[in-house]
Structures are given as structure tokens and as C-alpha cells.
Amino acid sequence: MGSHGMIENVNEIEKGSEKKKEKENDRQGHDDVHVLVTGFGPFRENTSNPSHLIASSLPPRIVLSKEEEEEGKGGRRSSTTTSTTITTTTIVHIHAHTPLRVCYGDVRREVPGLLFPATPTTNTTTATAKGDVRKGGDGDNGTRDGGSGENTATYDMVVFIGMASKQRGFFTLEQQAHRDGYTGEDVDDKTMKGDHYWKCEYGAPEVLRTGIDIDDVWRRWKRGLEDEDIRPSEDAGRYLCEFIYYTGLVEYWRRDPKGDRPVVFLHVPGEIEEGDIDKGRKVTLELIRALVESRNALRVHPR
Q: Which of 125, 189, 265, 278 has a CA-to-CA distance to 107 between 20 and 30 Å?
């Protein structure tokens, strides 16, 4: 039995499928995977944010195909033995969101509803300037509570993208995020110093890790990017990048602490030239391919 995987564009796969229909012994399967991709807007001196430039440059869908040949029944191969080519096609729908403000309140307000759209907004802790924390408030930090139907996730996978420093020329796939310690000021001059909402409301742990097999994903990712500097990481920076990562992870965790958390965070270099965005798009598409291939393999061979 032999197999191989590839990325194809939609027109190519449609043309190819017509040819495959002519083959008497070919069978074709089809799967759809929906991936949310987000980036951030401007902040501080960064008038353009490469995370959003990369996210918005992604195609709306890509096609992954995998072919396997199966020998016909009857034991050893003979002149009468037939083989069947099984082509499994995965159409990956990429949903690039509008840029999120580099603002703790906006992230807490918007992200839960992106992942689980039935989640209503509630009035709770509001982050303010200088780390002052008000209880009750008008819900400016967007924390959300339970609601009917809120356990149905919108997407199969989530890829948050954020900008690292301009001096850092490599890409990192973050593995975990922290609940507390967000003392850096956002674009509204606010911090999350003294905020205990996740701890008090959900009893959420200090650290949450992605539910995705990062080692497997990284190996698959690296195979498609042998010349690029890509690294796994456990330090997402304790700013909006790590904050949005924890926000996504905790929404899955609070619904099922032992359940799936199909969320990752990709840190990209801070340069915004055309070549930099092209490279970032390539790296992100290969990451999405690796994530989907790993997901599909896990479905066939569960851990």
C-alpha cells in the first residue's frame, strides 16, 4: 500500500476529479474542515500588523488529497488481481477574520462568540487603566457566560496569529498560555493586572496547553518548510498574543476540561514587506496543512 498527500487548488482538483471518474476502479471520499484564522490590528509604532496582513492574504480554501492503493481480494498478486485507488479529498475552508484590536477587553468580548456563537455577553469584571479592576460594570471586557446551545463549536480548528519583534526572524508555534500576569498596556492603556475572572468564575488552571499534538504537527510542518526557521515554543510573551491564546483555550476547557482544544498560536516576524508577507502566507498554509493532516491521521489511528 502506498500513500501521499498534497495541497492543490480547487480548479486543479475539479479537473482531476473528472479524469478520475473515467477510471473504473477509482473511489473518492470527501471531507470538509473549517479553520478560523485571526490576526491583530495596529499597535504602538506598528501602523501595519503582519499578523493580519498574512491572515487576510490566505485563500478562502485549499484542497488536500491523499491517494492509497488497495490490492483486490484473493491474497497474492496475480495477473487477475486488481487494485483500487482510493482518493480522499479534504477541502479546507479558511475563515480569515477582520483584525482584532490589540485590546484585552475586545479580545475577551469577541473571541468567545467567534468560537461558540451562542455564548451571550454578561456583566462582570472590567479591566481599566493602571490595572484597576471594577466588579459588576458594563461588561466592557466582554467576558461571557453559559447559554443554550453554546457547546457547539463553530470551527474545527483555530489558528491565532500574532506579531513577534521585528528583530526576531523566525516563526514559533506556541504550545501553552498563562491565565495571569498580563501587565503590559494595550492600545487603550489598560492592563489585566489584578484580574481574577477566569480563576473565580471557572476555576481555570494557571496554564492551559493546546489539545493538538504539537510534536506531530511540527514534524509535518517542517517537512514542507525545510528552508524556513520554524520552532515550537512555550513562551508566548504575556501580552495580547498569549492573552488571546488563553482566551481561546479556556473557552474549550470550561466546556469540557478533558475534551479537545483544537487551538494553536503562530508567532510571525514583525516585518511587513511584500516578501515577508509572502513567506508568512506560505508558512501559515503549510501549518494549516500539517494541522489537518495530523487531525486526519489521529482520526484513523487514535492515541
A: 278
